What does this fold into?
Amino acid sequence: MATVKSDVFKLLKCFDCLRLLVGVTVLGACIALGPLAGTAAARPADAIADFSTEARTLYRVAACASAGAPARYAGAWSKHHCARLARAITRYERGWLARARPFFSRVVPKKVSATIVYPFAGGDLLTALAVFPNMHELTTISMEPAGDPRALDHLALRRVRAELVSLRHGIEYLLRVGFSATVNLDQIMVKSRLPGQLIFSLVALRVHGYEPVSLRYFRFRADGTVRYLRRSELPAFGRGSTHARNKRFGNMELGFRRRGGKGRTIVYRHVQANLANKYLAKPLMRHLRAKGHVAAMTKAASYLLWCRKFSRFRRYLLRHVDWMVSDASGLLPMHARPAGFRQRTYGRFEGVILNIARWLTKDAVRLWRSQPRRKLPFRFGYPDDKGHSNLLITYRKS
It folds into this structure.
């Protein structure tokens, strides 16, 4: 208020003849308009870009989660898409989810952190919500961008139909197998004109009974804090290649809550990043470390956490994670035990399905053989080389 009055009095000195006549009027107008006129950040072109409307439209059209989709998407092709998606979700709910929910309700500690970090996630908000239904904040990290949410209304209808078919095939694969193949993710998320990562996430919200509330995109400042993108920073749709535009929409923050407006808003951030030592960004690591101690999960991670090239991110997990669930591609005993962790195995593991150093594989095999065989009634991530399902819980001794 003091700043506004000071500016007004300077103005009035230039117009002495009008001071008595319009002083009060000018003061009132400047107080009312000062926050808008005095800062460039509040101009419409520079306002923080909020895409909650686009998220709700995609929730209806792509995830088929509620009524009220625009008439443009009400054709027979849309009914076919929604019917196929509904069948896949029903199979998932009656199969994997019906077995996994009671399992995780038993093994996840009641006091586990509600802040979750999920590296090598590959579009898998779906499983994270099954494992951690009481989360408050989730951060997933993978090579895939969140994608441009404006695409739906700018693409020709025939292109929308073709892109939705491709995305649905990827979603059906995730619902059936429990993880996404890297090759598939490259095709349906990196190269797709629709925002693949976002649509996968919206389908996950539908499955677990949530709805989107807000959608913003961000970058990290040097200190690791989040800076939301303004509309002036985003390219016009159609300018540049799809790949380049999706990269500009790499990191998203999706707020969601229980359908019907119930409960707290949960914050889900997806970060597009390469976690190899060579590319690991300092702002991302500062952001993660600022969260303090967290819970974590990973699966179908190409055994990258075993490798020396990913030792820096592995070190972050060993220092900041108190409880973690994974398949065998999680933390090896040779890394977890010296850091003060214990590990509990489920299912069977006799070898990897990828070409990994044999001495690393032997460390994981010894772990499973050293413990009693605990039943695992569902697949979690990669099977072993014999087709057996496996799951690993890593937790601090304290």
User: Anything to note?
Assistant: The chain is about 40% helix and 15% strand. Confidence is low (pLDDT under 50) at residues 1-43. Strands lie at 115-119, 137-142, 210-220, 226-228, 252-258, 262-272, 294-298, 321-326, 341-347, 390-396.
